[in-house]
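2024-03-11 09:14:02 INFO worker-7 job=invfold-0412 stage=load source=structure_tokens
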């Protein structure tokens, strides 16, 4: 039986933008709420979550990524605003958003279509975002909702996307550990 790994495809966030994202996260942390926050070193924009895959699929996935990226060149994304999934009334995930970007949307769709040929489900209602925390219960939800309003239009900044990374995720009691399997240049 082949070994399997938990994996996803992501865009890493530039260090200078992480400082501003950390500021937002720290503002939420001032509220006494039961939220598990994402470690800044793990901050990323997910393009595709594969879940557990057989190690022998890595080459096929890499091949599809290279095929799609051959049609793209580096592009800018603009990170701004905050929100919650599924919505501000029922908060499960607190996120930082991205201004709508047609190149990013098309890239995600093109990759998703190629991964679908390998047997992966297509993403439903993909929304580019950076998860900053997961809310475990409704403790002080009203204060979190106020903070979401406060940062609704907060500008983080822009960055150039010039590479994406296929990552391995190892779950530990201290939180996930992410390792690059392969990095792909645009």
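2024-03-11 09:14:09 INFO worker-7 stage=emit residues=186
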């Amino acid at each position: 039986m082949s070994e399997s790994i938990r994996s996803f495809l992501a865009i890493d966030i530039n260090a200078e933008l992480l400082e501003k994202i950390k500021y937002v996260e720290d503002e939420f942390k001032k509220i006494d709420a039961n939220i598990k926050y994402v470690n800044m070193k793990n901050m990323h924009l997910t393009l595709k979550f594969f879940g557990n895959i057989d190690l022998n699929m890595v080459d096929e996935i890499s091949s599809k990524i290279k095929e799609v990226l051959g049609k793209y060149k580096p592009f800018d994304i603009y990170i701004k605003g905050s929100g919650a999934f599924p919505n501000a009334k029922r908060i499960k995930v607190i996120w930082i958003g991205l201004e709508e970007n047609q190149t990013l949307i098309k890239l995600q769709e093109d990759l998703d279509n190629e991964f679908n040929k390998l047997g992966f489900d297509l993403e439903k209602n993909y929304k580019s975002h950076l998860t900053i925390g997961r809310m475990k219960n409704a403790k002080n939800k009203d204060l979190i909702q106020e903070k979401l309003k406060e940062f609704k239009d907060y500008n983080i900044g822009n960055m150039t996307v010039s590479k994406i990374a296929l990552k391995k995720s190892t779950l530990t009691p201290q939180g996930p550990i992410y390792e690059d399997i392969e990095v792909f240049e645009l």
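2024-03-11 09:14:09 INFO worker-7 stage=report msg="The beta strands are 4-12, 35-37, 44-54, 75-86, 91-98, 129-135, 155-161, 163-170, 177-185."
2024-03-11 09:14:10 INFO worker-7 job finished
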